[in-house]
Amino acid sequence: DAKTTQPPSMDCAEGRAANLPCNHSTISGNEYVYWYRQIHSQGPQYIIHGLKNNETNEMASLIITEDRKSSTLILPHATLRDTAVYYCIVRPRDFISNFGNEKLTFGTGTRLTIIP
Amino acid sequence: EAGVAQSPRYKIIEKRQSVAFWCNPISGHATLYWYQQILGQGPKLLIQFQNNGVVDDSQLPKDRFSAERLKGVDSTLKIQPAKLEDSAVYLCASSYWGHAYPANYGYTFGSGTRLTVV
User: Cα angle at A3 between A96 and A62, to 5 degrees?
Assistant: First the structure.
């Protein structure tokens, strides 16, 4: 079962920042927070991940609360091409001792619609 | 680099027929996954390979589904016989693994095969 809770849908105006929340209140110390998105008729695409510090890359920023029980994915200037389903996933950190347990467990995600 | 290749892109079959899907992962990716995505749901893992060995097939309906990765590279997923509830998108993904596996490596997914069983 997915260990995260996300709103089923959100709208955002084009050009504005899209802020997608995720609750992962049962996250353990060895688990990362990953974000993927799935554009219509495509496979999921990796966006960003983090452990406890805020992270930024060319696609997005990830803000993780100090207690790590929730996070927010930020798309700073949303475009129509950002319309997709966004998945927040927790995943074990130690890939050596957890060999064979690298699967991603998807929930139903947040359907983000960018409004022109 | 080339992405994960899957074929066919679409397939329509009648119930009780057989169907096979093919996946070619990114070169050098030792781990290969097959996911099933039913409309409106997130992808669900069916089977995970490490090279040509099965690591996790706990959610694979083994009475009708089978998968193989004989040479540790490309893989096929087969359904025999198909049921109406097998209508879904079948996604293949691959990832790098090694003792220096950096935690920031994500999966790379193919575009999937959309199966419709009528």
Answer: 80
Where is mean pLDDT largest: A96-100, B22-26, B96-100? B22-26
Residues of A whose CB is below 8 A from B31: 102
For residues B64 and B41, what is the distance between their CA atoms, to the nearest angstrom?
A: 22
Lowest mean pLDDT across A10-14, B24-28, B93-97, B107-111:
B93-97
Pick from B53, B118, B48, B110: which is nearest to B82 by CA?
B118
| A93/B103 Cβ within 8 A | yes
β-strand pairing of B113-117 with B10-13: parallel
Residue A2 confidence (pLDDT): 62
Give residue A1's pLDDT band: very low, low, confident or very high (50, 70, 90): low
Q: For residue A21, count other CB atoms closer than 10 A to its CB.
A: 15
**Binary contact (B97, A44; C-beta < 8 A):** no
CB A91 within 8 A of CB A102: yes
Task: Test B45 with A42 for CB contact under 8 angstroms.
Answer: no
